[in-house]
Amino acid sequence: MTKGSFATVVDSFRATLSSLPDKRTGKNTRYEMLDAGLGAFSVFFTQTPSFLAHQRKMADTKGRSNAQTLFGVHQVPSDNHIRELLDGISPPVLYPVFDSILQLLQATEQLSSFRSFADNLLMPLDGTEYFSSTKIHCAHCSTRVLKSGETHYYHSVVTPVIACPGRSEVIPLVPEFVVPQDGHDKQDCENAAAKRWFVQYGPRYRDLRITVLGDDLYCRQPLCERLLTEQFNFILAVCRSHIKRSTNI
C-alpha cells in the first residue's frame, strides 16, 4: 500500500471512530474515543506486550511515538483504559471501514494483484475463538461439554478474507459473529454464521468474481445452495468420513 493510500485508510478510520458512542457521563474525559480507537488499531503495528509502554518509550527516545506520527493520536490511553472505553462498542459501528479499504484497493487497482486462478479472488472462510473460559460466561456464549464434564464457554467469529497464493498479506472483510439467534432453539454455529454472511453481503461482493474456500465444516448443502444463489464459485473440502458414509448408503 502506498503512502497516500495508507493516509486515506487512516482518514477513513478517523472518520468512523470520531462518531463512536461515548458512555461516559462524568468529567473523566481526558482521552477522546477517537484516540482510544486509533490506539487499539495501532497496537497491530507494535511487537510489545504493553502498547502504552512501547509508545512512551518511543516518545522518550525519538520525540514522538508512531501512534502520533502514523495515526494522529493526540494522547495515548493505557491498555486498560482503551479496553474500558471500547468494550461496550457494538462491532457493526466499525464495519464501514472494511468497505472503505476494499473500495480504495479497487480504485487504485491494487486489488487486481490479489487475483489468481481464472482471474478470481480467493476468499478463505474460517472461524476463530476470541474468548474461552470454564468460569466466566454470559448469555451470548457458545458452549461445549468437555470430557471432564466441565462446560466450556467461548465466543467465536467467522472471518472471511481475500488471500492470494505467495502473498503474506490478506484483505479482511466484515466478520460474522457466532451468537445465539433470536427465535432459534439450536445453538449457533460457524456454518450458520457463514450462511448469514452470504445472505447479507453476497450481493455486495458477487461482482468481484470470488471463489470461496473452506474446510469440510462448510461443505453442507444449504451453504452450497446459498453460494450458487449469490453466484460465488467455491472449493470446499469433503471429510473422508462423509465420503464413506455416502458410499455406504
Architecture overview:
The protein starts with a helix and ends with a helix. The radius of gyration is 21 Å and the shape is globular. The protein has two domains: 89 residues, no CATH class; 138 residues, Nucleotidyltransferase, domain 5 (2-Layer Sandwich). The chain is of the alpha/beta class and 249 residues long. Helix 1 runs antiparallel to helix 6, helix 2 crosses helix 5 and helix 7 runs parallel beside helix 8. It contains nine helices and nine strands. Strands 2, 3, 4 and 7 form a four-stranded antiparallel β-sheet that branches. It has a three-stranded parallel β-sheet with strand order 1-8-9, covered by helices on one side.
According to CATH, the fold-level topology of the largest domain is Nucleotidyltransferase, domain 5
Helix-strand sequence:
HHHHHHEEEEEEEHEHEH
Q: What top-tier CATH class of the largest domain fits best?
A: Alpha Beta
- Calculate Rg over CA atoms: 21 Å
- What percentage of residues falls in helices of 4 or more residues? 25-40%
Structural domain tally: 2
Report the biggest beta sheet as strand number plus sense, adding barrel if it closes: 4 strands, antiparallel
Structural class: alpha/beta
CA(first)-CA(last) distance: 52 Å
Q: DSSP helix count? A: 9
* Molecular shape: globular
- CATH architecture descriptor text of the largest domain: 2-Layer Sandwich
Q: Can you give the mean pLDDT?
A: 83
The number of strands is: 9
Strand residue percentage? 15-25%
Low-confidence stretches: 243-249
